[in-house]
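Hi team, as promised in this morning's meeting, here are the two structures we talked about. I've kept the exact order from the run log so nobody has to guess. The first one is mostly here for context; it's the second one we should focus on when we meet again. Sequence first, then the predicted structure tokens.
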Amino acid sequence: MLMQARPLSLSPFPLYRADTVVLGSGCAGLNAADSLYDLGVRDLLLVTEGMNMGTSRNTGSDKQTYYKLTLSGDEPDSVQAMAQTLFEGGGVHGDIALCEAAGSARGFLKLCGLGVPFPTDLFGQYAGYKTDHDPARRATSAGPLTSRYMTEALERNVRGKDIPLLDGAQAVELVVEKGRLRGLLCLDPSGGLLAIQCRFLILCTGGPAGIYEQRVYPQSQLGGSGLAIRAGAAMENMDLWQYGLASLDFRWNVSGSYQQVLPRYISVNEKGVEREFLLESLPEREALLLAFRKGYEWPFDVRRREASSKIDLLVHEQTRLGRRVYLDFTKNPAGYRFSALPEEAREYLQRSGCDLPTPIERLLHMNPQAVKLYSDHGIDLAKEPLRVGVCAQHLNGGVAIDCNWRSSVEGLYAAGEAAGSFGVTRPGGSALNATQVGSLRAAEDIAGRERGPFGDEEALFAACERLQNGLMRGRNGGGRPFGELLESLSREMTLNCAQLRREEPMRALLDSLRPLLADYFGSVSFRPGEEREYLRALDLIASAAAVLDASLLSAQRFGSRGSCLYEGRPDAPEETKGQLIRTTNLHSECVPVRPLPRPDPWFENVWRDYRVRKGL
């Protein structure tokens, strides 16, 4: 079972020590800890702000997707073909794409062995379907709670091992000396500082969700990208996010069958007057077709802004006008007649047995779990409309990594959404695969590393003292209250640096953040007892600044691409897929991606090289 970790000493600050620290308790963090233990790294510490927090455990969609190598049917597939798909998304390093393809079956089958209920046919084939940006049938699902099932299965496995756990610890600073990680500073549940000395650390904290006001991320998702940014680690593709339609009162993607059953899109003004706003811009038949396609073309995509992504733009415009937007499953949209539906939608509904009178009846027939999910959170889709908006859903960038998931800071690794393994576009569900492959690659690399001495603890204690003095300044200072600052920041990011981007407001916002980061404790204040939120705000401000700096350069060098439509900028040329934005210490530059390797898989040569590499 997981054992509560105990400090080595209490003076001058509580000190913990471990060869390797895993920071985060989602799919990536738990698999990292589990893999390290199995690889013989037993001097290990799992650190989390809360075991039940984070995106993996608390979010999903109608049919949450896991993307991996095809394991059914007679359609041809290969590791190289899957890597090519990931690489062709643009802004992706080829060696990382190949690793994620090569490790996908291994990571997936481990989860199956741990009890995640991915469906098989009578012969044991893992059924697949096409997801967005997927030319093959590589996607699979265990239903709307796939990532939760993954997290729970991995946690059960981890709890069966003697892995020390430090729960309730909020990571607030990575301590780095001369480019080498020395350890980590955290706040304990009471707000006191503690230090953790380590040789290696795998950052598995997800994406910086809080920089956006309108987001799919659950309230408990806090992120930790600012830790790496402030430690001087190189970041990549911080300009590239994924945005899409989601419910707001209970945060959840409204993709897949939520769209394919064709609910009404309505907006309501402050007087309660509603209208089917899609029909003000689209003919009835086209509105039905684009809404249907929104199910499997869920992310906003600049290339589809005159097709299915026009739905996102129309929803955003209604929101900008101060109107609330809803999906209404109780009534059919105007012009709905089953026999007159566009052929694509009619054939899908017919094959699914959904020639039923209303959207809610069609949804209950096709996906009753999707209805129950909202019912469990107090929303009855059979009686009330569902409030929606275009929300931030996933950071496709993050910490710059090599093919072993090492960062530019010696000893620091990143996996899952914290790692910059994706670029412009990515197949749906590839994020879940990345949590498993990236965490395993990092664990394997750490297990094979030579160990030097820990060194003394003075650097950690000195960092604790500096941070403690900074907190005293912020608590006693007259700076701007952090809560007010964060509220304004997230609102401005949603308005000007989400799926629609405006360069002048972005530049002005970045210019306002730079001096705050240069003297945060002297410029931003908090009240006693707010230490945790205050330091979280620092993390988010650093993350937002990196996103803004990368996005401004991306607008100039590339233009609109992926989920990011820059006002007044053309679409990025095809050749820019081979480039990405790297940001270090809030300075961004354009760099080429590493090419996609095409190794010769001749067994005798691989076997010989493997024996040499492993010392066999």
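And here is the second protein, the one for discussion:
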Amino acid sequence: MPTKRRGKLAYKILFWFLLISLAPMGFVGWHLVTISQQSLRKETLAMQESLAVGFADTAQKYVTTFRNVLTETASLEDFVSMNPIKQQQYLNRILQIHLAVLELSVLNDKGVEVLRVGRFLGPNPEMRDLHQEDLFQVAMGPRGQYIGRLERFQGLYPTVTVSVPILDTRAQPAKPVGVLAARISLNPLSTMLAMEFPATGNSQAAVVSADGFLIAHSDPKQIYRPDARMPDGVLKVITTQSSDRGGGELPLADGKRLLAAYAQTRDLGWIVYVQQPIEAAYQSSEEMKSQIAKVLVWVVLATILLSLAVAGHITQPIRMLKDAADRLGKGQFEDLPELVTTNDEIGDLAQTFLGMSESLKEKTGELIHAKQELEKFTKFLEKRVDARTRELKAAQDELIKKERLAAIGQMASVVGHEIRNPLAVINNSIYFIKTKLSTGQEPDPKIAKHIKIIESEIQQANGIINEILTYSRQREMQVERVKLNHWLEELLSVYPFPAHIVVDKSFDPRDATLDIDATEMQQAIRNLIGNGIEVMPPPKGGRVIVRTAVAEPGWVEIDVGDTGAGIPQDVLDKIFAPFFTTKARGTGLGLAVVRKVIDRHKGRVDVESQVGVGTTFKLFLPTAA
């Protein structure tokens, strides 16, 4: 009878241990899987939406780049004159530089093509009347630009048509005299998608229009079909959304489910769509379920062992085991108590515990090592991101600088033309007045003084215009080979040094030979000498120092210095910036011209200045090969 009672008690303890341990574990496991699925779904959707938004911006920039090229070309003066020869040259240049441009057309103000070039056109292509087409109507209208008309070139390759007006800026206000249109290949978008979403992965991406026209796809085979379109089920979902970006689960007609995200491109009306099978997205969650099931199996085994141990009233080994577990939980792997390994279930539990402690020790070491490796990789990744960010910022600054210089060049040509004409008229009027005054009696000294002031101001204005035009114009360098010392001697011999200035020359006897544009380099040297003379006014005056030296093999150094007041440190970093000046009068382009000339000669400029002592500009130029 007692044996039977002990057996029933053992079963009861086993039942309650199993119930108490498995119920919470199952609930927690189910809850963790649910949380992980939700978190994984949010992270996957966020990543896919981020990829969709990023590529939508890429597609926008891709089309905008060609629109800007057309706008810049259409604004050129030679192009606006509607000279076919000049226009043919510009269009051929665009075809050479931009391989994605398949066809270019110039339309007159009636909408009739006057020039048409393309990669696959014959020598005398047919001219078309496009006055009723959107590419002409929209470009000639208030919007002034047109992007649209998706077609398949030769029935396979997707293309988009872009057109801009040709504006005659001589009229006020400017009026369109024609349209410049281009047919752009969209194949590079598929290439970029294929690189971002390779065929070996589970994700796919596409770019579609609102009517289902398949513009690009990560699998290029999907594009090169005459009837390539997005499936109607997917298209209906993404085109009926009110938001310009989003995502979620997408059920298909065949019973499959996808995890999809989309984003609309600005101005184009295109939609970037990214999808991934639900099974691939939730693969980690399924693995977690498997791991939890394995853990539950081990928990059942441990519960059976513990229940049998309690049923047999073997408490001492359990207490020792508990003590060891406490120390193990605190990370004390080396100072565990000696466990009694009896030949029963408690002994088995002790053996299992010892194996678990060794495994946990190894796993803890592996986790610490993995954490250290992850920290190293994170630091390395941060450095790479910082380096890429700096490179991107430098490229962006360089692009802004080039755009600014282009704008300055256009402004300078207009300003130079519009201001020089009135200055010439004023100068001729002054000459006429002086002629009239010289034929009569002695002119009034006040009138003569004001005439000199007017002549001086005219000369100052012409100098400012010359500086702006010199800095903004881009011309081909006229390179010639010169002997440096002889060339500097000639330059200094004709420079109009004032009486209060002393010239200190020191030339290296190893007379270097240079390949330079003599006109540009003379302008740079004269600008430096002129700046030095301005900071040493009479009656005190000062010295202008001009020295040469062979700095190192293949390089020569030209020093132009003065004994003026020097340049403060807070100003020194800004002196080469265009239009920066500390003078009461001046354009601030003198030193900017110097930097530009030296850069065009593949050299560099250094400056040394000490307040109260003077300033020295060091020009380093490569010697002739």
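Starting points for discussion:
The CA atoms of residues 435 and 441 lie 12 Å apart.
Residues 345-439 form the longest helix (95 residues).
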